[in-house]
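Re: that chain you flagged

S.,

Sorry for the slow reply, it's been a week of failed gels. I finally had a moment to sit down with the sequence you sent. For the record, here it is as I used it:
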Amino acid sequence: MKFTDLEQQIIDTLKDILQETDCVYSNDLVSDNPTALRGALSSLVAKGVLEVDTCFPSKINGVNYYPVTWDEDLIA
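Prediction finished late last night. Pasting the structure tokens below so you have them in one place:
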């Protein structure tokens, strides 16, 4: 599957986070440039690479953080 530069940036960020923990939130993936990366995150969700669980966010300091799961085969 081909990815845009911004989609690849999100995938690379995910791989970096996975070296430390298995707990990933959508905010972690777009924090570098939220305006540009939210669209890329949405595109990865549409492609079935990532899934963002909007039903059960974690509320931390008044901010909702949404857990992310991913297709391990596509991320590898």
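What I noticed first: The first strand starts at residue 50 and ends at 52.

Talk soon,
D.
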